[in-house]
Amino acid sequence: MNLKLNLVSLVPILCASRLDRLNGVSSPTATPVSKRQTTSFPVFNFTQPLDHFTDTGFTWNQRYFVNSRHYKPGGPVIVLDGGETSVTDRLPYLDTGIVDILANATNGLGVILEHRYYGAFFVTSQYRIYSKQPPTPANFITNVKFAEIPEDLTAPHTPWIYYGGSYAGARSAHMKVLYPDIVFGSIASSGVTEAAISNWGYYDIIRRAAPANCSAQFITAVKEVDNLLSNPETNSKVKSFFGMPGLTLDADLTSFFAGPLGAWQSKNWDPAVNSNSFSNNCAAMGNPSNATIATFQGFIVNNATWNLATIVNKCFGTLNDTDFQQTDLSQTGRLWQFQVCTQWGFFDVTCYPKFVDVEYSSKICKQAYPPGEFFQVPALPNIEDVNKLGGFNIAHDRLAIIDGEVDPWRFDCPHSFISPTEFREDTPLRPFKLIPNAVHHYDENGLADHTQEPPEIQAIHQQEVNFVKGWLADFKQRH
């Protein structure tokens, strides 16, 4: 992960789920990068065993796309991890984005590989297998035969450069740590390598990075609604004011306010990909003032609270468990949520920790995944499964860490302001780069004419080309 609150909301625009915000591409609050026109690429399937540790007799087809336009014999393979969405959402990265940029610079073969639990052939029979299946991409890297290429490009004879953004960025870092002999180099862009039960820093980064007037308005509204909910005389009235008179839980109201803030993650430097949702929400919040407005419910609010109520007016509660227990194959939102509930966490306490706490944010895990015959979701996710691979401190030769300065997910990346290695050294062998004014994996997409990209995007793309070329020169010296 794109991943944030409200996890349990059902209205798409303002109450985007944590899954959708970590996924970014498929987020209802984001303009997908796939909106850009993309060249058609051939699609292939690689046969994988269902279980890499036990012979079940079952296999599945892992989908991947190939860009061979720049390939010359002796070149590397640049593979992008599709992450928690359909691999087709990543095709622009194969065409004009980071995969094409690196392949063009190195005479490489570009590949985008679909995750085993997302897209066309996600494995549905055993969700629990996920946590024990890191060999899936490794099996691909060491055994794939490319139909378009006569040479054997499997690792370790061919250098593979593994790239991922967000959740896939963490996977990219983990691949280098787990399989250093076959993954020659990795780039983790906005890689959320530090799993956490509470993800309070997400909204704090937005608060600090947003325009001052906008942050001030949200803070004013937050404080006022907090006071109104804490007062028994106005508790039910403020819920009616926001159009939700039937809510029982105070947190069901306050969690909805995260939607307008979470739209920050949908910002992008490319106008064709960028979402204006956050800017529009800021405009709707108006400017700070002492103006007050009398409500029909009989109490007075600041203009900031009034404006917030005009934005948040179509969401509803989270008490109906059956809403989360649909298990047909169209319920793709359950896929990432299962990973959240079992391993990754990232539960929000938002700007309303008094109401929206870990207990509230994690209750969807109990609602969506009641105890089954073969598996029971833990009371809290086992984040140690992730963090034992390095967490904030994850590092390896030829592992590049690329983060965005104002990315809300920076809180869970090695550049986090609570990371003990936030200011580690940036070297060609272990690049550690922070893109100025960047949000979520800003280096992943690109333009056909790279000279039209913003200076900071041109700069990071060139830096990535430079250190990958250096890595490949080292490979040639060794072989």
UniProtKB/TrEMBL annotation:
Signal peptide feature range: 1-16
Name under which the protein is recorded: Peptidase S28
Keyword terms, alphabetized: Glycoprotein, Hydrolase, Protease, Signal
Matches recorded under SUPFAM superfamilies: alpha/beta-Hydrolases
Biological-process GO terms, alphabetical: proteolysis
Gene3D superfamilies referenced in this protein's UniProt entry, alphabetically: alpha/beta hydrolase
Family membership noted in the UniProt record: Belongs to the peptidase S28 family.
Entry keyword Transferase: no
Pfam families: Peptidase_S28
A single GO molecular function term of this UniProt record: dipeptidyl-peptidase activity
Annotated InterPro entries: AB_hydrolase_fold, Peptidase_S28
